[in-house]
Amino acid sequence: MTRMIERWFPCAEVSDACSESWGSGNTESSLWVWFAKRPVAQAKAAVLTSLLPWPDDEAEQRDLQDLVRRALKGHTDGADEIQAILEQEYGRIPRVLDPFSGRAMIPLEAGRLQAEAFGIDYSPFAALGGSLLADLPFRDWSREPSLPFQKTDGALPLEGDTDRIVTDVETFLQEVGRRFRESMAEFYPTSAGAYPWGYLWASTLPCQECGRRFPLVGELELRRPRPKKGDSGQSFRIHADPSTGTCEALVHDGPPIGTPTRVQAGKSKYSADGRVAVCPFCDHVHSKAVHTRLSAEGMREDMLLAAADIDPEDKTKVFRQPTDRELSAAKQAAAALENEPPFGLMPARPDELIAAGNTRTIQSVNYGDRTYGDMCEARQTLGLVRLARAINEVTQECLKAGVSTDYARTLAGYATAAMMRKIRRSTRGARLQKAGGAQVGDIFVNQSAVSFSYDWFESGLSSGPGSWESLSKQTVTALRNIRQRASALPASIQRGSATTLPFRPNWLDAVVTDPPYDDMIDYSDSSDVFFVWAKRAMSTADPMLSMTTHPGGVQDKAEEIIVKRGGGPAGDHRTREHYDSSIARAFAEARRVVTEDGVVTIVFGHGDLEVWHRLLSAISAAGLILTGSWPAKTEAGGASATAANIVTTLTMACRPAPPDRREGRLASVEAQVRAEVKSRVELWDRSGLAHTDMLMASAGPAMEVTGRYSQILDVTGDVVGLERFLIVARKAVQDAADIKVVSLPLDSFDARTRFALWWVRLYGRQMAPKSELRWQVLAGDLDMGDVKNLLHQGDKGCRLLTAKEFKGAITPGSSVIDVAFAMAKSWPDGLDAVAEVLVDAARDNDDEYLWSAIAYLANRLPEGEADVAAWNGLQRSRRGVDVAARNIASAQIHTSREAAEKGHPTLW
Hints:
The chain is of the alpha+beta class. The chain is built from 28 helices and 28 strands. One of its GO terms (biological process) is methylation.
């Protein structure tokens, strides 16, 4: 049975839905801290098209396509019809597995399609989060006894309540919050009868000149002004008192009037000099190397700078100097932390070591942190300890009241989820964020790297951003919305390895997965900062969570399939070779457990062409054949839209390779690829697939054809690499689409010119996201060096260069597009200047490719542009350019002969 995904995928509909509220997956992803967020629209489309058949009848094909398009308009559209088709097709509930399930978006959507879904992840932290999303919300908990706590609004949860789990989670979180606040109240004194929103801290270091300690702060503004409301904002300055040798932060209205103690030394924040630290007592400058060394040697001490209250009238965050009582309470918290009892065999303060090689992932390692318990200041750490203890206490009382162990684990899990999101805005990496009103910044500002800062913000006991009350409400809201969006069969989520799947052969109808992308994310290393706290919070509810074979007490790393960034010097085993061999084994396991007519669907996105080629090699080594390849803008509109990375991912369908494949011959296989792509282009065109998407989709039929053979040999008997057939397939798309540059096929131009003309066809002179540059380079089987100096890149994206911006030197080896730019740039200087370009390029007036490209550019780019005027002028003056070029060439020949006769050969 051919599956739909092998012939068609709703690329445009997925791209659109991923930017909408329901399809983005923002609600689902808000439940748990994880680093990869697969939009639910893409997950739903991948599962749906992997299960649905592709009928032979064209009318039936169109009907199924319309049904899928309708299903991507929301969670419940077309659900009954889809379920009926799947029941008829399989005669039972279909089975779907994601062996790299992460936060379990794919198993969730499989369950929403009423499929039997399974999810496996190597990280126990991810597996816990996945169960909270795709499994536990959809179980029947109606037989559980009432919780032994009363909600703060006085309402008791009712037996058999249809939304029982939401009610009980809310009650559980409220009780945890009550106990947490009571246990920490003495360390957070109230101000005007209310708890402050939070506190600004900084690390201090001793000056290497005068010996006095001073705080390292890089910014003095606390709150941005609001002119329309007559609010001038707030800032602070560092006041150093030489007589006492002490510093304090003085809060004032208006913009900063002083100078930070950390200032930029070089022209760029990325320069090697970085920020230097200037002593406010003696003005001694400490280079980045010096203050980093002092910090790494354990010389840092924490200093409370300012407190922030919430104005009861307009909810504005108002900053002030901390009171003596607040300063004393912070010190008392440090003393109390030393006396906290352990969680079983685990000390209260995490002592798990941060492994070597994590300087890029856990950035505070560079500044002296050695354990995960070092990452917070003492009061933050005490708060997390007391919060984890409150979760355990409430869990224990639920068990005493007769709640089942599964339900107690569920409730504790959602409380831990809220705690993990609190940690995400804790540690010394949580900066004060002023945009959009004062907020607590996220510690992940660079993908999965946990940031560090000398100055940071600590949330208090209020109901403001980053507080337990705020985070627990968000958890309940997310859970309620997930349950209300669509019913689902509970998925089975467990911890395990993708290389040893616990399923018998040929048992699953589809494997749909979003595997790790080479070195893009250090999943376990980054999530260990959460794991060490999660296993403490869950020590009563799930003691197995803390079980690990890692000697450092963190998550296992032995079989994690990534390339460890920065792990080389530390001798980390997660190398490129480890990744390539392991991902191939994982794909082979997927092939083993899927039915003979099933598919293995792989969602993948990476900006490095080499990684794509390595992935294809892994698919082939696993005994799979790629049969479909479908691009979609799954991250469009996000923060990465203007970054030079891939926001477009491929959804690729593979099926088990047939046994006893014979060898193929190059010429025959190339002909088959061209014929297959041509037939698919007709379907894709009928289905409305854009030409730019057809280029990437062509990989499917190309690999399907090549997969019929054990290997493909050229006329000399050498094995031909798969990459060759990707190029053949892309050329076949352009041939089938009959894209002409005047009268010449686009594919007949040199690669650099072909890229530029294709870019003009897609975007003209409009600004496009930088991610599209990398995507189109990838689609053209090029690298970034091949298209250098063709596009102008700015903060908001990239666009085609203007001729005035072109800086390339023209030689006989220059591409057509470079010569065309250089000629337009020289046009204002007259025909002789243009003719010199033509001569330097060793081209003449009869060069059909050059003049066709010039005509194409003039027709495709906006009228009125200087470049268009130049190219139109060149076409009108083509004869004059030819005459001038001949004259210049003749003069050069004459000069060369004279020099030769005088014994002075020239370069001509």
